[in-house]
Design a protein that fits this description.
2 copies of one chain form a homodimer. Chain A is an alpha/beta fold. Chain A has 2 domains: about 240 residues, Alpha-Beta Complex (Spore Coat Polysaccharide Biosynthesis Protein SpsA, Chain A); about 160 residues, Flavodoxin domain (Rossmann fold, 3-Layer(aba) Sandwich), CATH 3.40.50.360. Chain A has 13 helices and 17 strands. A 7-stranded mixed β-sheet of chain A has the order 5-4-1-6-10-7-11, sandwiched between helices. In chain A, helix 13 links the parallel strand 16 and strand 17. In chain A, helix 3 packs across helix 5 and helix 5 packs across helix 7. Chains A and B meet through strand 2, helix 2, strand 7, strand 8 and strand 9 of A and strand 2, helix 2, strand 7, strand 8 and strand 9 of B.
Chain lengths: ~425, ~425
């Protein structure tokens, strides 16, 4: 029987199931973008995030639910903020959430963002946002959902340029289910031919003139009950929006299961690669090379470096760090890594993982767990956790036979891979045995 | 700022996001169903599972992707098998997957299931399945997707009885996105009024006569390109299907993110409750009571019992076990639990979790980690893993001050909760420190 990990790329390698190009950028690598497209007109964004959860009995509206300590809305904001040609972002929130949103903007150091209070319906909120932009003729306004955090620059570019050219543009996806029309008493009336229809998704783009005119002219009933901006542009401006197929990761976080799916995509993105620091020791370097192969085979790519100084300081942009030490058991190297990460303010947007892998000279499991070590790493991890750094230890044992060594090595790899992927706060400070 | 765990019920407590009634039953508690409805006509099921992944470049078709060591199709089969009034299930698979499916049926001891080879399209496969049923007049045939594992008895009952009454019935869901019609050159033509339409989902039910006649009379083009059985019943039998709104958990596992969502629902279901075994010692019972409160506060309900014998053998149906010991450090009690679980064949459908929580008398972290213990629990866990039981250890330390004790206790609770929820194979055999 095929045994496939549920999150493995072996299921669904390169079509709908693939999370698109987003994940390579979630990592906050703002300064390492691929070559950017030029956009020679002003582009602003309105993000309606007005749901209070009241209608649906939610205690926390989904846009404020946290993933790895950070609310969904902050991920969405970051997706726009990292695009250099996007000038400003207006987030429209319910009045009672204004303070919360202001707090999020400050805490995660968002720069292009302003929060404005929403209206009593989705369209009124978007209209408030458009007015708050104060954009002018020639500008393009992108409208997106706060609960669609995985939007990439490529699609934003296509939407913005198509909106500029055609007046309006929107992302679409193929229908997953057949759509059927119902009779008033709950029977099938007819089913639609799936190929002729699409699901209308976000982002959508409009020239400022089109979206402004659409909202100025639309009816109270549109404001109250409508949901589709493309429809208003068609009805009140005669603009047939250009439709652009987006990736499946555009989906809207709607149900509880979507929270788990979003968390999984974020964790995937954060566990792609790690950096192994050897401290320059030859024995540590040998162990690091073995780890590189074993962990690489489990899907996380490792770079091996002696330290984080000089040119290697660029590795501070990684999400995961493995400090390898052999023989002497000493946490000072780990402390140094923690200090450097803190100085670089690298754990602002998501927790970093630091794993201390220590190979003791003894082949006796029991003897190597020395008196001070478990307590020391526990203390160190408690302090690091307050700075959003998750520290774990793995104790590896010298083995006389090759088979035992291979088994230990594969266990280190499995543990490392699981710690990096799961980012479990409960396990910090543990000294695991390999 | 509100910090909400992505999988917590605090986000989306009781509407779409809630995974419905399924999870209370995923646990394989076949013999503990709520009062069953009576169904006085024969009901059979056809499960098309014919996708080979070829069209989409999948290495493993989604229905054969594994969650916690068990393929998705087995979860779906179980969802039907546990319903007493369902008589037989025909799974239609591609010829090249017949052996795989037969293996799954044997390995997970499915009883009502037969695998038959599929045709070259979805409708041809379903038709093969209907013919293989050999059901007769008066019978109802339920058609479902292999990749919708979370279907509950309540909905199946509604579909079956509505199909019996009206000839055909199908599950529907509200549309999440607006549906739009496109022009041939990729522009918006018009958008549909969302309230008038529904997404057609599965399961669907038909009287045998209706589904048989529909397939006998439908065209080659229907067989080749059609997807909607309700449409065939309408077109060829004049039967307007009764539509029944299903829960959001009916959704079809389509994209990679859906695999993570499905895994999360399965893990939720398996981490609802656990059973604490004290061995009858008064000190262990005191610790168990403290754990009951602390772990309960994190969302897992604990039952405290002295052992699994006599009337307590009903607790063998739990998914998670915590063996508590105080003072003496002895793994024999854990070994006894493992033996009992194995004898009851309880780890057939999903991995069970056994956690050994040991409170040592010493308040010195280092001294308590005695020579033999870590190696012994590692060995025991390796053997248990082969029997689908995940064994972990937690070492708790007597503390002189209340504050230290509270901290340890809350760490045990956090660790226990994380181990039960994550069911990580990488961490088995670890003796974690609390």
């Amino acid at each position: 029987m095929m045994e496939v990990n549920a999150t493995s790329d072996r299921c669904d390698p390169d079509r709908p199931a693939h999370p698109g190009v987003f994940p390579t950028r979630v990592a906050g690598e703002r300064d390492h973008q691929p070559a950017e497209r030029s956009v020679d007109f002003p582009v602003s964004v309105v993000l309606p995030a007005g749901g209070t959860g009241e209608r649906t009995g939610l205690q926390t509206p989904k846009q404020f639910c946290s993933f790895l300590g950070r609310p969904l809305i902050s991920y969405t904001v970051q997706a726009f903020e990292r695009v250099s040609w996007i000038q400003s972002i207006v987030v429209v929130v319910a009045k009672e959430n204004m303070d919360l949103m202001t707090d999020i903007v400050q805490r995660f150091q968002h720069r292009k963002v302003r929060a404005v209070p929403g209206g009593s319906s989705r369209h009124r909120s978007i209209w408030n946002g458009v007015l708050a932009l104060g954009a002018g003729q020639g500008a393009v306004v992108i409208i997106h959902d706060a609960v669609r955090p995985f939007v990439d620059e490529d699609l934003l570019y296509k939407i913005a340029t198509a909106a500029k050219e055609h007046g309006a543009a929107g992302a679409v996806r193929p229908l997953v289910s057949t759509v059927i029309a119902t009779t008033p008493d709950g029977y099938l009336d007819h089913s639609l031919e799936r190929a002729k229809y699409r699901a209308s998704e976000m982002p959508q783009g409009f020239t400022y003139d089109v979206i402004h005119q659409a909202y100025q002219q639309c009816s109270e009933s549109d404001f109250e009950f409508g949901t589709e901006c493309l429809h208003l542009a068609l009805q009140y401006c005669g603009t047939n929006a250009k439709l652009i197929q987006g990736p499946p990761t555009l989906w809207k976080v709607t149900y509880k299961r979507d929270l788990a799916a979003a968390e999984s995509i974020i964790k995937d993105a954060l566990s792609r690669s790690a950096c192994v620091i050897t401290g320059g020791s030859a024995r540590a370097a040998t162990l690091a090379d073995a780890l590189q192969k074993a962990v690489g085979a489990l899907g996380t790519e490792l770079d091996v470096i002696p330290d984080l100084k000089g040119g290697n300081s660029r590795y501070l942009l990684k999400e995961n760090f493995i400090q390898v030490s052999v023989g002497r058991s000493c946490l000072s190297e780990v402390e140094a890594v923690l200090t450097e990460l803190q100085a670089a303010n690298r754990a602002l947007l998501h927790p970093l993982v630091v794993i201390w892998v220590h190979l003791s000279d003894s082949d006796e499991l029991s003897v190597s767990v020395r008196a001070a070590e478990p307590a020391a790493i526990m203390d160190l991890s408690s302090a690091a956790k307050l700075r959003n750094i998750l520290l774990y230890g793995i104790q590896l044992h010298q083995s006389k036979d090759t088979e035992g060594w291979e088994r230990s090595l594969s266990r280190v790899a499995e543990l490392t891979s699981a710690l990096i992927r799961e980012r479990s706060p409960a396990l910090v400070g543990q000294l695991l045995q390999a």
